[in-house]
Amino acid sequence: MQPRTPLLCVLLSQVLMLTSAEGLDCTPGFQQKVFYIDQPAEFIKDQAILNLTFSDCKGNDKLRYEVSSPYFKVNNDGSLVALRNITAVGKTLFVHARTPHAEDMAELVIVGGKDIQGSLQDIFKFARTSPVPRQKRSIVVSPILIPENQRQPFPRDVGKVVDSDRPEGSKFRLTGKGVDQEPKGIFRINENTGSVSVTRTLDRETIATYQLFVETTDVNGKTLEGPVPLEVIVIDQNDNRPIFREGPYIGHVMEGSPTGTTVMRMTAFDADDPATDNALLRYNIRQQTPDKPSPNMFYIDPEKGDIVTVVSPALLDRETLENPKYELIIEAQDMAGLDVGLTGTATATIMIDDKNDHSPKFTKKEFQATVEEGAVGVIVNLTVEDKDDPTTGAWRAAYTIINGNPGQSFEIHTNPQTNEGMLSVVKPLDYEISAFHTLLIKVENEDPLVPDVSYGPSSTATVHITVLDVNEGPVFYPDPMMVTKRENISVGSVLLTVNATDPDSLQHQTIRYSVYKDPAGWLNINPINGTVDTRAVLDRESPFVHNSVYTALFLAIDSGNPPATGTGTLLITLEDVNDNAPFIYPTVAEVCDDAKNLSVVILGASDKDLHPNTDPFKFEIHKQAVPDKVWKISKINNTHALVSLFQNLNKANYHLPIMVTDSGKPPMTNITDLRVQVCSCKNSKVDCNAAGDLHSSVTSVLLLSLFSLACL
Questions:
Q1: Digit-coded pLDDT (tens) for 620-644
Q2: In the record, which residues are listed under signal peptide (predicted)?
Q3: What are residue 265's DSSP bridge partners?
Q4: 336, 354, 362, 600: which has the fewest C-beta neighbours closer than 10 Å?
Q5: The model's pTM
Q6: How far apart (Å, rounded) are the C-alpha atoms in residues 442 and 13?
Q7: Sheet containing 343-353: which strands, arranged edge to edge?
């Protein structure tokens, strides 16, 4: 019995028969462009993996092969071999073949054993995409694969378009982005042979694929067939280093964290083709600074870039570390970390964060302080120690007085720079009441302690405070002292006797008195018994009196060494006496000699005294000096009266004595001359020259008088 031919072999033979039956011209390039290689356990050095067939249709003179992986080569006979034993090479290899006349690219896909048996559709798909056309009278194109970064010379042929039955005189035409659209002029086609060429170096990272179109035209440019799409694929070269674009990279991890705690993630970017090993990155730590207590404090996941702790929690103790900041040089390498891969580096800064695992402790159990009685302010600074981070609430101290401060005479605050407790006296202390004070003070952190740490006896301290006796000044009682007297009382009248006591009751000192401030010079004080009497008349209307109250200051001086002084205030309320006569205003008036209105002026009166020694005022014309039937005065209200004429007078100056009397008991009277100017008033002009030197108009005087009346 003859062995059965495998189905795959039969199908492949049929495909070859179909393609050879066409009998077409030679097409430059690889006869097969895609190969599937089963991933073995290991590629063996110098062992042939497969054979590639390339033809430039001109004898393959100076044929050269290039492989995308440095671990493989293609021999002159087309056999692909490994340069050393290797277990993994990635997903795809590319083989570039080139002669002076042609070049082409073949793709080698490395798959598992299960994937090497393709379906019938996949097999025939290969036949359809091979450079040998299956139908006559049609444009046949295959995808063109071009490595990026090719060097001179240019232009160079990269593929060929075939038309099996092209009419005589017809031409090929190539269009699309890269030909007649931006970027223009990268590709062109030989209109007679169909050879496609590239004119410059390509960069896959700029444009990865070009979608072109091929058609045939007659001599007039009319399309005969097409357009047919032609895809140009730029094959990636490993020409981009990995870069870290998201820096600075700063991570934090709490001290005492468990082994394997994730600190941060670092990822790099590679501009090469992500479907190839050119952009397959692996990470590692190149350097750690400092290298204590272990040179390997951290580990980075080579694929993900996660940085984790690898030391025990005990070694991750911030208080025992030489430096709580670590700097790691992280390297990213493409080609899956193989030696031929390109690298990029970045610095990761990792901070070991503090937790409150140390309670504050006073540097000693007892503190001493002294303070003078009557003084306030800071009397002692309490010092503590705390091993935690000085920049955190785990170090900052908070102090509390827990005993010995019933009168709230003391307060304690934290010095933000030194963390010391500043104990202050806020209410003056009295030596005569208590010469000694004892305070119990505790200290805590702003942040709570971790569960396994607590505050111990060292977190409390005692402060002993000694109050020093000071010679205090005598104190007046009451202060201020107040007395009420009538103004104008006789000189030598006793106002009161002041009283001052010495707070230093244990010193048995004597006190002497003196005048400190007496603005009007009205007062005396007996230096021994403190009796205050007058040495001048008290005047309620004096400019030194405000709201009927006169203020004076006295001193009480003890016999200490040096002597101490106390100050007392005396407020004298002065009762009013009718000792001021009223006065009138204004004292000058004008009137026209032909005035129809015989009103002269409205007079007002004022008095420095207080009610009832002021208004209502009585206004009169002093009869003895003025003829009757010329002037008259009429009361308007309690403070104003109207002066008017019985008849017009000739142009001249007149003096009218006005008598005004207040309502005091007994009343006081004042006589004041009112000067009246009778002026000539012609054509709205007032002429008082002949009457005197005054130039105010009658109307102005009347208006001023009415205004004064309205304001009362």
A1: 998 766 666 789 999 999 999 999 9
A2: 1-21
A3: 306
A4: 336
A5: 0.51
A6: 96
A7: 249-254, 343-353, 325-333, 282-289
